[in-house]
Design a protein that fits this description.
By secondary structure, this protein is α+β, with helices and mostly antiparallel strands. It has a single domain, classed as Nuclear Transport Factor 2, Chain: A. It is built from two helices and four strands; from the N terminus they run H-H-E-E-E-E. The protein has a four-stranded antiparallel beta sheet with strand order 1-2-3-4. Strand 3 and strand 4 form a beta hairpin. The N and C termini lie far apart (about 45 Å).
Amino acid sequence: MLLRTTLALLLCVASLAHAQVGAPGPKKRVGRTARHDYYHAVSNDKNYDEDNKLRICADAFLDVTSQVVAGTKYTFHVNGCVVNSAENAGEDCDCGDKTLDTYEVVVFAQSWTHTYEVSSIAKVSAIKADL
């Protein structure tokens, strides 16, 4: 009995040591919760660092990776256009005939405390969702 318990404990410890705790997950489709967190973050100017001047209207979500920390850190890839304010980056934004580019938008969300932050926005070379 003691040998079986010890073996089980060793297997658990080994599997935990092998796991990449806090590592971002694989790219995946952008689900409802991720979209909700994205729009809560990007549609309010107070959620941006003062050095982060870009405001993007997301015309299409390509993919997202997420990492659970004290909330969720998302890295979104979106096709979108530059807009003049966070208010114009909300869910009902429209790029119209503006040029679309691909952007990487990093968002931190802790929905239970209503904490949303846009950590960075960067234009990237065009990518295709590999889903």
